Amino acid sequence: MPVGAIYYGIGKMNGEIYAGDAQTVYINRYHHNPKDKGCFALMVGPATENDIGKSYSIGNYGILLSKTNHSGIEINDNSISRRIKRAWRSVVETNGGENIYISNKTNISSPDKFKFHKNPNSEYRYHPTTLDNITNENVLNEKVITKRPAYWVIDDPRAARKRAKEEESKSKGLRKFLGKKNKIYSSKTTHSFNYIYELPITKDSYTIKKFFLPENTNISDYKWIGLYDKCVQKTIPLLTLKDIEPPKAEKIAPLSGWGHNVTSYRVQILNCDTILIPGFTFDANNAFSKNTYMYVGIGSFPERITAQYRTHVNSQNPDTPLRFYNREDIYINLPIGLKTFDVDFLSIYNDDEKKSYGNIILPSALVPPCLKAEDTTRLTGKAKQT
To answer: What pTM was computed for the model?
Structure first.
């Protein structure tokens, strides 16, 4: 289903947006060749209540679309909170695998992710909940050896002036003074994303790109589609998604059987070249011969059939005859070059008897496209036809 043309000059990105289905977006005539690489990603927004806090969301602004289908896989680092940490000068942050060493040579492993070493001439700053009782006892029972000091420490003569400036700042409501020991950490959060969300670079305009929404999302739940620029931390809505109805698989009638127990449940047109026949039954043992095949045809069945083509049944060679089936689900793939809207009927046909054992009329339904590759060349213009 066409959504509209998209263009963003700064990112040198343009194309024609199509909704493939509820979770797939295609960009026809895709072009993206920006000066700064890796800055842009495709997104829809604003984020729904279920999206906020997920790894693929950009706050409450929207969610990112990936180049690969990762349904059911949680990508943990595509929306990154980068935090700039400031801590006490007398505390050194260590990795989770390190141990705490104290002066009596006792080695205690801490279960917490962050642990601290004590630097010389500083206080112990262990949080009371992060260490066990053994460690606390070792700290309390540490032997302290005293001796005559080599020098005396006098008070800073500027301390009074410093306190006066602090009081003056507080009185003016500025409150800009932050004591080193009044705040352990300060942080700044920015949004980045995983490489699977980066828009691919192309220098021509004759490709089709496929993008995926996360699992359990629906494109009709969002109001716009656009870009996210992580280099300047900016969301760029470009096209409205109001009243959009993406294509979906269509259920039609079951097969009409004429003989040999041909039956099925309701046939489903999954996309433009795949048909599902659930609960298919066919008694090949009692057929006139074993040369019975699944055909799709063009024309009015059965009076004016213009052409018939054998299909792939469960990815088998189209020249493989149908075997015995008893309520089995089978997938029908059309021959290369044919789409479901090009054909008019599907038939179980015996070549020797020249007779159809069952058929169904195929309507021209709006179903999802059937591009298989992530980057498929166009079928018109300069691109090579495949």
So the answer is: 0.57
